[in-house]
Amino acid sequence: MAEELILSASANKEERYKALIPQLESLVAGEPDLIANLANIAAALKQTMNFFWVGFYLVKNNQLVLGPFQGPVACTRIAFGKGVCGTSWKEKRTIIVPNVDEFPGHIACNSASKSEIVLPVIKNNEVFLVLDVDSDKLNDFDTVDERELDKIIKMIEGMIV
Q: Which helix (H) or strand (E) holds 126?
């Protein structure tokens, strides 16, 4: 695949995901380097969905450590069970937060972030990394985001050896 995404500017959210996912599969096919693939996935999600911030935190030495991302500078390390990312890691589940100011213990890496979705990537029943997506709009994530981003999570799980 050429390093250019083909998407319709007039497409709704679900249509953009449906156009993006096969292109992501082509983009990462044959590339064995996980970090390179995560970097391209983050860039493609930011470009396609116009998210405020999208990136990955990798589990290293019992903390989440910032990995490839697109958007403003971010928190570098997050403790187990802390904030939305650490809670997703601890509970091994996707978390959608309509208003981050109402999430107990939310870590404000950037005050412009208003809503968030975090999805864990699980390998051998352990969280390997999390996908963190922030919006500068309240209540910006729904079941469409969860369902479609989960397809990307499954793609990433297949890359981990």
A: strand 126-135
Domain boundaries, the chain: 13-159
End-to-end CA distance of the chain: 24
Residue with tokens 């369902």: 147
Amino acid at 142: D
Q: Specify the length of the chain in residues.
A: 161
For the segment 42-98, what is each residue's pLDDT rounded down to a tens digit?
999 999 999 999 999 999 999 999 999 999 999 999 999 999 999 999 999 999 999
Q: Which run of H or of E encompasses 24?
A: helix 13-28
The DSSP secondary-structure symbol of 159 reads H
pLDDT in tens, 95-135: 999 999 899 878 777 778 999 999 999 999 999 999 999 99
Phi-psi map region of 69: left, alpha, beta (phi>0 left; psi -120 to 50 alpha) = beta
**CB proximity list for 67: less than 8 A, separation 6 or greater:** 35, 38, 55, 56, 57, 58, 129
CATH architecture, domain defined by 13-159 = 2-Layer Sandwich (3.30)
